[in-house]
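Q: I have three molecules that I believe assemble together. Could you output structure tokens for the complex as a whole instead of separate predictions?
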Amino acid sequence: MNLDSRIPGGPIQDKWDSRKFDLKLVNPANKRKYKVLVVGSGLAGAAAAASMAELGYQVECFCYQDSPRRAHSIAAQGGINAAKNYRNDGDSVWRLFYDTVKGGDFRAREANVYRLAQCSVNIIDQAVAQGVPFARDYAGLLDNRSFGGAQVSRTFYARGQTGQQLLLGAYAALSRQIGLGTVKMYNRTEMLDVVLVDGHAKGIIVRDMVTGEVRSHAGDAVVLATGGYGNVFYLSTNAKGCNVTAAWRAHKKGAGFANPCYTQIHPTCIPVSGDHQSKLTLMSESLRNDGRVWIPKKQADKRPAHEIPDDERDYYLERKYPSFGNLAPRDIASRAAKEACDKGLGIGETGLGVYLDFRDAIARLGEPAIKARYGNLFHMYGKITAENPYKQPMRIYPAVHYTMGGLWVDYDLMSSIPGMFVLGEANFSDHGANRLGASALMQGLADGYFVIPYTIGGYLAGQKAGSVDVNHDAFQQTVATVNDRVSKLLSIQGKRTVDHFHKELGKIMWGRCGMARNDAGLNEALKEIPALREEFWQDVRVLGSGQSFNQSLEKAGRVADFLEFGELMCRDALERRESCGGHFRDEWQDEGEARRDDDNFAHAAVWEHKGEVKDAVRHQEELKFDNVALAVRSYK
Amino acid sequence: MKVILHIWRQDKASTNDNFKQDGRMVRYELADVSPDMSFLEMLDVLNENLIEKGEESVAFDHDCREGICGACGVVIDGVPHGPERGTTTCQLHMRSFKDGAEIYIEPWRAKAFPVVRDLVVDRGSLDRIVQSGAFISVNTGAPQDANAIPIPKSDAERAFDAATCIGCGACVAACKNASAMLFVGAKVSHFAYLPQGRVERDSRARNLVKAMDEEGFGNCTNQNECEAVCPKEIPVRVIADMNREYLRAKAREG
Amino acid sequence: MSWLSSFWRSSIGGKVTMAVTGLMLFGFVVSHLLGNLQLLQGKDKINGYAKWLHDLGPMLWVMRIGLLAIFVLHVWTALRLSRANKNARPVAYAKPSTVQATMASRSMLLSGLSLLVFIIYHLLHFTLGVVSAEHHDLKLADAGGHDVYTMVTTAFSVPAIAIAYAAFQVVLFLHLSHGIQSMAQTIGLHHARYSPMIKTVSFLVALVIAGGNMLLALSVMLGLVGGAQ
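A: Yes, here they are, computed for all three components at once.
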């Protein structure tokens, strides 16, 4: 497997400029001859599709939702980082770069992160020009707030709906191109396979979710912007439809899958209320700006929160991490909550929860100020729990939120399959082992607006436009495989529903490969998952036909892929014999703090598919840290 | 708790305007409903039961289940998104219903929203309206510094109030005329309050209203039902904004 | 012309047409009431007013034709919009419901059509004199004009007629109470502070107009006006 990251030489500040200069250009008149297929319409996908269409390429864009505007980027609440230094508090591109590399626990690629920090500045300009209504101060200038893992205020926000507003900006840009006829949009269309011709990605196979038609689309390059795989845990903050299918099928066709074990467990989510639970709801990390996290000092303290006096409360984040306090990074805050609950200090009926308390902030700033900052989040919390967070503290617990791992890409965001690019959460490149808050929006948009429009040209310039069409044998064969699989799922007619298997898989993953992992548990999971998969293919019940709108069938295909992917994830977690960021191994810790092993694991693990998941081969891309010194990551 | 559901079932997509005959209301009884379940989780349980009995599940749109993607939405007892104000269907919980309640669940009803299956409708008409001009025509890479144009906080807030629209279509479903004016008004209003948006205000107002009319939505008769069911509580003020912008654009038309 | 027709055909153009013609008709209703209230000031006053109107000559016809044109446009546009609205919702809900729509707002078409019937009757009754020709042709001995006072008091002293007229004022109230505030919204006037005020004013003005008209009919019926004078 070719894992040449193709990082340009020279000082880190100049790498992106020099790559942009070195990339071959496609003559404007020739651009319209090239067709690019973009899968996914979130921040990365919509931004990429719109920007490439503006440049003159023909673009086809696909999403499984009924409208591109519904991609799950829309649910991001808190904000987007940018090194604007509008607050005059010492921020810079270098500091954002440094914070992100450190926040990722030194498992990200330096050059990519630096480029991300550089592009962050342009993103805000672009979004404002599109009409994104960011929060402003009374002078009419942009406002900022601070976020976990940073000591400067560099987060731009739009109430608690930053992702929504940024996505609607990208969606508006995309819609403009659709209206102009330069992008052809396919809604309710799910990618089920990628087609390779002479080793290059030249098309995709999709299923029209309304008619059930399985169809080929040919292009000169394929861009996957299909999000993360958090739903392998069944319960997560992801949308119900989020899935790994596109990435997994690409992996099975030869794309390396990097660091699948890097999953982010977000510390502030609403705790599970029962078996019927279908998803978990995030409460933005921005709440930790004003909310204080605590647990009772006494085990099984059943008093209502307001009756517990201050000296019987443990504000454990402030105690353990005095310099960052409640703004400790996500992985650290999550683990601290788990540790508290493991000791029997958790609150609520299940004992799986900690308090996030606004009492002091309300006393200091007044309820209207808190309402102005977090009104919609408090409202949402009230809706779900029927509790009033202005009067009693929120109950929160960590939940699966984001996946740092993803398809391996080089500096140009091209996967190990030539012609297939991977953007946003679907790739692995920028966040290392842990993503800092307000960085996902930044990465998705940087990839879509400011990286792919350049790098795709570098690839396409070397390709003959329109060299392959859907009549090529490779398409026929892949369509047949996809159809077989659909028929297979419908023909089993077993006893168990798709959701049953998904929930079972989720339990295994959360129990064995969740917030803390260990050798024994992972080995157990590696037996349980193949057994569950076997049972799935014997006993799943999918009703209805393939030639109609069939939501059970859609889910079945996705869960089938999760059942394979979960195994790879556990293998990766088992092989990474260290703790870093979101990956915590019980065996490698210093009293609850992650212990990295830089000598043996300062690399990205890249998996190559070899027929069966158990046979997948682990490759390594060594990570070099020339600009940020490897150090123990401390937030104390 | 127990509930009795009456749900619109329809196998095939509506092919003509007379889609009353395309489906029917079907009665289901569901026991063991927890008041902490969301409305969609209640439907999940129903679907699991149906599949186990060998019946096809009830199709309904949903995705984020946290009230922001705008995918979900059914008419519950005649009210889009159900009885709670400012709430999407996915954020509605069963504690809002009484034990033994009879609940009528229907798809959005509008000519411009043909039913795809059961409770799923095609809202492509809303996308097409946006494509006609609900954007600022700026290419990637062109803009000046974000702080170059200060925007009064009150204007930014007004723009935001309109921009929170999630495009669910409840306004259309609630309107007795199936009018999309709250949706379109939200787009017009969002850009009308921003200096960046004012450059194209005339063409935007004209194009959006034209596109809206061509999709077959009805007209506003100022009953404000849209505002009452909007999960983001977008005020009917945006419709007045749109009317004003449109009049201005027409008056200035060459 | 195409500019005008494309405006009228558009949804908002149609709404604005309703608002503007509605505003004019509202103006007429106000002046109609103010004129007729002179009934309460006695026979000479109201008959003098009627004579003054008649003496306008050609101007009166200009006003009548203009009023008719506005009226026709108001009704015609209403019917066009209503048809479009019906088409936009081909299938009704099995279980319909509303949250905050007022009865007045939901019944604009019905109240409007009822008013249309009423106005036709009203014109036949008092203006054209088809319904009761013997009263209509009453002339004033001295000046030669119509004896409007006697015509009206004779008509409303029949309880059935007076009550029917009064009842229609309820319909007029409903139509105006929604119509007046709608005008403001439709032409783009909306303000967080003033819009609730417009709503209240709309309600009160409608109440005063309907109440004033009702007062005329009922005061005759109850013998407070007319009779021996």
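A: One point stands out. Chain B has nine helices and seven strands.
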